Amino acid sequence: MSLQFKHNPHIDRLNKILNFKIDSVAPSATFLFPDSLGSASIIASVFATPVILWTLFKLKRYGWLIGFCVFVIIPYIAINILVEEGTWYILYLFPMLFLFVYYFILKQAIKDWREPIFVNKPGSDYEIHLKNKKGRK
Q: Is the dihedral of CA 86, 91, 66, 49 positive or negative?
């Protein structure tokens, strides 16, 4: 029995954004300029952030939105407040690292967000559920 899922355009959009690979779009550019791959991925992730946050809002995943604030926004603000200009410049990379970790965890979590479609076929779970429901009455 193959399990089918309900169509959800918001989850499809998140899946497409989080599984985007730059080297599949321009393989020769990433081979010739590997240092630009890092810059392009950082720029792409920053531009994709508002779309991802809006999609999470549309999906009513408020815990993920709060997690984004705690995991990405608060460290960014704290580093800007605590670190003076020009000293410990490497600390400015930590919010970007946290953003990539957040995206990785989100990418793993959205696999379980789809709702299955239960079809009444012989031997299916739905048919067994109906038999048990009739037996209880």
A: positive
DSSP string, 53-79: HHHHHHTT-HHHHHHHIIIIIHHHHHH
Token pair listed for 41: 């991925």
Structure tokens given for 101: 């970790």
What is the pTM assigned to this prediction?
0.69
What sign results for the dihedral spanned by CA atoms 68, 98, 39, 32?
negative
- Tell me the per-residue pLDDT of 6-59, one tens digit each, with 9 for 90 and over: 777 888 888 888 877 665 666 666 566 666 666 667 777 778 889 889 999 998
CA dist., res. 111 & res. 13, Å (int)? 13
